[in-house]
Amino acid sequence: MIKGFIFDLDGVITDTAEYHYQAWKRLADKLKISLDREMNEQLKGISRMDSLDRILALGNQIESYSVEEKERLADEKNEDYKKLILDVTPADLLPGISDLLADLKAAGIRLALASASKNGPVIMEKLGIADLFDAVVDPAGLENGKPDPEIFIKGAEQLHLKPAECVGVEDAQAGIEAINAAGIFSVGVGTKEAMEKADYAVADTSKLKLTDILERANS
Fold first, then answer.
1. Average pLDDT over residues 79-99
2. Which of 10, 29, 103, 199 is catalytic?
3. Quick check: is 8 catalytic?
4. How far apart are CA 217 and CA 185, in angstroms?
5. I need a labelling partner for 91 at 20 to 30 A (CA). Which of 61, 101, 102, 211 fits?
């Protein structure tokens, strides 16, 4: 029986992907690396340092920076990003998410956030939903990023539930792979092609209905 839901943040609860893109683009431009939106799609769902490595690899600069210099670059991008998200409000919740969260709480289902974003708690506060969540996995304490299942296993642990008692919701292929590897029922948001490995998938968040998800997950 399902007792917990573990959510990704970007593309599931809200969409700050544009802010991430703007911040990464500014840094890439500074490094004389051409970053477009197509390449930016490959950065979804992975950690900040992994994203930076992919951008540096794109510009053949992966060996040009020390670990300390890479951390400085990643921090620079994050400070830029934090300025961009200052304007986030509850109006930025994706369609259907407010109702889904309300239905989950009414059903007594525990909620956890499993996002690679270290700014997750700040964004949740701005969205007005922080008090609805029982746990937030700290990505800084993880050894491996998605598609490794660690973040979702930690989410289940923090909810004091078994993986089989949880549902994971993601919009990135790496996230779906992580959920599946954790032994958790996976719900994908996105195109049929991108979400082909999900146990259950919908085209957009407005179609995330608790009754439908539980019917599939508990069957």
1. 94
2. 10
3. yes
4. 6
5. 211
What is the pTM for the complete model shown?
0.82
pLDDT digits (tens, 9 = 90+) for 153-190: 999 999 999 999 999 999 999 999 999 999 999 999 99
Q: How far is CA 187 from CA 48, 91, 134, 203, in A?
A: 24, 24, 20, 11
How confident is the model at residue 42, as a pLDDT?
85
Is 50 one of the catalytic residues?
no
> How many Cα atoms within 13 Å fall on the side-chain side of residue 198?
27
| Tokens (6 digits) for 219 | 């069957």
Which of the residues 8, 103, 134, 148 is marked catalytic? 8
Q: Rounded to whole angstroms, how far apart are CA atoms 146 and 125? A: 24
C-alpha to C-alpha distance for 34 and 28, rounded to whole angstroms: 7
Distance of alpha carbon 178 from alpha carbon 146, whole angstroms:
6
Distance (Å, whole) CA 56 – CA 65 = 9
Using CB atoms within 10 A of its CB, is residue 167 exposed (0-12), middle (13-18) or buried (19+)? buried
